[in-house]
Amino acid sequence: MTIAADPSFGGVIHAAIRYSVYMARGWESKSAEEQVEQKAEQRAEAAKAASKHVVRAAGAEQARARQLLELKRERILSEKTSHPVRRSALQAALKEVEAELQKLQ
After folding, report:
1. Which domain holds residue 36?
2. CB 74 within 8 A of CB 94
3. What is the mean pLDDT of the chain?
4. What pTM was computed for the model?
5. Between 20 and 30 A from 5 (CA), which of 28, 61, 88, 89?
6. Which residues of 54-67 are buried (b: 16+ CB within 10 A; e: fewer)?
7. Contact between residue 24 and residue 30 where contact means Cβ atoms under 8 Å apart
8. Is residue 2 a part of any domain in this protein?
9. Among 73, 59, 79, which residue's Cα sits nearest to residue 101?
């Protein structure tokens, strides 16, 4: 038995009732579709932000390594010594640091 045929309604259904009964599901499904689309967009944006964060972290790590090597180079250059063994050790260390700097650039 349908609502329209129900005798308690007197066989007449107002247009507002009929509209809300039959149209509510359409609006609900559209809302559900929009929510699914919004979730997909949010996931895509989160993945994009995460990849940017990884790139930034890698760039920051490389910048820190370069800065550390430059500080080591400055320290080696600032040391003054007249002892030939110490001087040769400093020169070897300087060559090693400069080689590592070249690898980073």
Report:
1. 12-104
2. no
3. 76
4. 0.48
5. 28
6. eeeeeeeeeeeeee
7. no
8. no
9. 73
